[in-house]
Design a protein that fits this description.
This protein is α+β, with helices and mostly antiparallel strands. The protein has 2 domains: 5-137, Jelly Rolls (Sandwich), CATH 2.60.120; 141-212, Arc Repressor Mutant, subunit A (Orthogonal Bundle). The protein is built from 9 helices and 8 strands. The chain has helices spanning 5-8, 12-19, 102-108, 113-139, 142-157, 166-173, 177-189, 205-211, 215-227, and strands spanning 23-27, 32-34, 42-55, 63-68, 88-101, 161-163, 193-196, 199-202. The strands form 2 sheets. Strands 1, 2, 3, 4 and 5 form a 5-stranded antiparallel sheet that branches. Strand 3 and strand 4 form a beta hairpin. The longest helix is centred in the middle third of the chain and has 27 residues, at 113-139. The chain is globular, with a radius of gyration of 18 Å. It starts with a helix and ends in a 13-residue tail after the last helix.
Length: 240
């Protein structure tokens, strides 16, 4: 059964108490879950699907600054008493999530040391990944950044393939569509991926990791270092 890795790591009694006060909600592709600088009403723990963390800049398209799946939680800043979202969040792939109202968090946090520890740790993970992304956008070639993005997407889809358009990838990577077309064509010619009608299949996982910039491996390592646990077996091919 799909699960969120953070909730899964809670002590059983703490997990049961919190989930009794939460509900399962669908995640629908294109759905907007948070708006930058506006308050979020709840914690959202994805079990399936993929969320795109983007930042809007005046007169520019949205730029992706992070990605989240079952390894994370949306709204972790609530543990600090901060309601405003630091980013805009869109659903990139359909899925489902546990929705825990902010009022439940405020009421239960004093008696939930495990949840507090996980939320504080995940905030550090997000900070680390955002700094890596900033450097990656500046220094690394588009082909390597695209390989990283594809690995991140596969991790969260839990399958060999997932839906993605070249236009969408270009927008999220802060690149021109023609550049993404060339980079994706190069990865496909090397036998690392197959791309057909908006669907990408990873053909050679090891080869795609070799083609990716070092940021992918660094993000995965920092997640494990900070959270002090590795992803579950279903995601151990490379989730952060």
């Amino acid at each position: 059964m799909p699960t969120n890795q953070l909730l899964h790591r809670l002590p059983a009694s703490e997990q049961r108490r919190l989930l009794k006060q939460s509900i399962q909600v669908p995640l629908l592709r294109g759905q907007q879950l948070a708006v930058q600088d506006r308050p979020v009403p709840s914690l959202l723990f994805p079990m399936q699907g993929c969320l795109s963390l983007v930042t809007p800049l005046e007169a520019h398209p949205l730029l992706q600054v992070g990605m989240m799946g079952s390894e994370g939680v949306l709204g972790a800043q609530l543990v600090l008493g901060v309601a405003a979202s630091p980013v805009t969040v869109l659903v990139q792939q359909d899925g489902q999530a546990w929705d825990m109202p902010a009022a439940v968090l405020r009421r239960e946090l004093p008696a939930s040391p495990g949840l507090r520890r996980l939320l504080m740790g995940y905030l550090q993970v997000q900070w680390r990944q955002s700094t890596t992304t900033s450097a990656c956008l500046h220094f690394h070639a588009l082909r390597a950044r695209l390989a990283r993005w594809l690995l991140m997407g596969q991790d969260r889809s839990r399958s060999e393939g997932f839906a993605a358009t070249q236009e969408g990838m270009a927008q999220l990577l802060g690149a021109r569509r023609v550049g993404v077309t060339v980079a994706a064509g190069s990865l496909q010619a090397a036998g690392l991926i197959r791309y057909h009608r908006g669907w990408i299949t990873v053909s050679d996982r090891a080869g795609l990791e070799a083609a990716s910039c070092v940021c992918y491996a660094q993000d995965r390592a920092s997640y494990r270092l900070v959270m002090k646990f590795a992803p579950d077996a279903a995601l151990d091919g490379g989730v952060h």
